């Protein structure tokens, strides 16, 4: 098989690169290891920066998003049985939007299929070659070894993908921190309460309440790194959420059936070398942020915009200038965003062996973000996201 751009991964990054290229008249084939059903059902992110929403609208993916996306104009921080309600209004009309990542993925997949463009599911990419001049992607599909020949490879295959290791010397450009805890994430058929959305610091560990729709809540508890997602009963989870989120009023969350549970480890990871020859990586393939900032998907969208434009310039006018500065331009958004997500992570979780002095230090950080003008500005700016250069 031959195409102009071979895209590895049908996550938000790969699907968006494909969509932008399509609207610029460039052909691509997406190779995705998982089944179509698995990709459509995978529950992950849900908080979108306004730049992400604008990008999806610009590329014709705004219809359902405009209808079902829930504006989020404030955020709560709770700690030490007190609460701060922080406005996200920076006077520019920007706000966050709640819209599940699986809906974005579904919108992009259905559009691509309606346009008759190829996504090969259950295509497991094993290796790449020719990335200097004539790229080839080797993959296994329907029990057969196959090759996709292309002019450029977009490595959008997430943290565990194969693309990153094909960038020569990428290991020497990696920066990593692993946190000694994980998040138990649940989806629940319980109407989220606008007055109780945000992050809670508790001496028992972090808790987070957010929404996926008007009737479905997305909630998280800090747990041990190797916790079993099924170790707690539904009632134990709700009780623990209420205890950790207590802002001094003893108000309770709406409860309902838990329809999905998963445990995700928390880490910060950046590979600063994001391109070599005719291969570039984007999204989780290049960086992971702890989910405390709600930034992973938003960063993937930022990379996808730059990658698609760099490929367009290469393939239409043989101009490599943007491609040559791809890593640096992406990193100008990535590092400050990683810094914010890790700062949130470190202020909100209880670390093993943490002293009461360290807990008091966390309270000071949270008090700064929650109750001072300059701290609220910092939080607002970081949550709303950095502007795009491209
Ligand atoms: P993805 O979504 O991981 O997609 C990569 C795709 O590549 C496929 N793949 C392969 N295909 C073929 N051959 C191979 N050898 C392959 N290896 C891998 C995979 O099957 C997959 O389909 O990466 P992408 O596109 O870069 O998107 C990144 C986002 O998914 C991720 O950053 C966010 O979900 C992170 N995240 C959040 N981000 C936000 O912006 N806001 C949030 O509120 C938010 N909450 C979260 C999150 C991530 C979480 N977990 C589970 C990691 C909450 C959680 C719990």
TrEMBL record:
Species name: Aminobacter aminovorans
One Pfam entry name: FAD_binding_3
Broad EC category: oxidoreductase
Domain FAD-binding, chain residue ranges per copy: 2-340
EC number: 1.14.13.2
PANTHER family for this protein: P-HYDROXYBENZOATE HYDROXYLASE, TRK SYSTEM POTASSIUM UPTAKE PROTEIN
Name of the molecule in the record: 4-hydroxybenzoate 3-monooxygenase
Keywords: FAD, Flavoprotein, Oxidoreductase, Plasmid
One GO MF term: 4-hydroxybenzoate 3-monooxygenase activity
């Amino acid at each position: 098989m031959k195409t102009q751009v071979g895209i590895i991964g049908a996550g938000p990054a790969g699907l968006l690169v494909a969509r932008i290229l399509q609207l610029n008249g460039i052909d691509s084939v997406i190779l995705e290891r998982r089944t179509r059903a698995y990709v459509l059902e995978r529950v992950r992110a849900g908080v979108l920066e306004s730049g992400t929403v604008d990008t999806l609208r610009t590329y014709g993916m705004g219809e359902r998003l405009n209808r079902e996306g829930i504006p989020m104009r404030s955020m709560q921080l709770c700690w030490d049985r007190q609460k701060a309600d922080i406005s996200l209004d920076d006077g520019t009309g920007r706000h966050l939007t709640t819209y599940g990542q699986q809906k974005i993925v579904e919108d992009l997949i259905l559009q691509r299929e309606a346009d008759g463009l190829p996504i090969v599911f259950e295509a497991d990419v094993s290796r790449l070659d020719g990335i200097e001049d004539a790229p080839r992607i080797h993959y296994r599909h329907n029990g057969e070894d196959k090759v996709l020949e292309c002019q450029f490879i977009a490595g959008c295959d997430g943290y565990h993908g194969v693309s990153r290791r094909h960038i020569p010397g990428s290991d020497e450009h990696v920066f990593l921190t692993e946190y000694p805890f994980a998040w138990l994430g649940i989806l629940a058929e319980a109407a989220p309460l606008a007055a109780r959305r945000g992050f809670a610091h508790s001496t028992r560990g972090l808790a987070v309440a957010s929404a996926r729709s008007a009737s479905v809540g997305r909630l998280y508890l800090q747990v041990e790194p190797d916790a079993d997602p099924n170790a707690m009963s539904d009632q134990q989870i709700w009780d623990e959420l209420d205890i950790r989120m207590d802002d001094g009023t003893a108000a309770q969350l709406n409860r309902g059936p838990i329809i999905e549970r998963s445990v995700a480890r928390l880490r910060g990871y950046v590979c600063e070398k994001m391109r070599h020859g005719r291969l570039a990586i984007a999204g989780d393939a290049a960086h992971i942020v702890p989910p405390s900032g709600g930034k992973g998907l938003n960063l993937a969208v930022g990379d996808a915009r730059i990658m698609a434009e760099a490929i367009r310039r290469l393939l239409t006018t043989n101009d490599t200038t943007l491609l040559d500065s791809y890593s640096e331009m992406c990193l100008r958004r990535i590092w400050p965003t990683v810094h914010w997500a890790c700062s949130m992570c470190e202020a909100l979780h209880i670390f093993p062996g943490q002293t009461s002095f360290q807990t008091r230090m966390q309270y000071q950080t949270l008090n700064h973000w929650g109750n001072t003008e300059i701290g609220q500005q910092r939080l607002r700016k970081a949550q709303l996201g950095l502007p795009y250069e491209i």
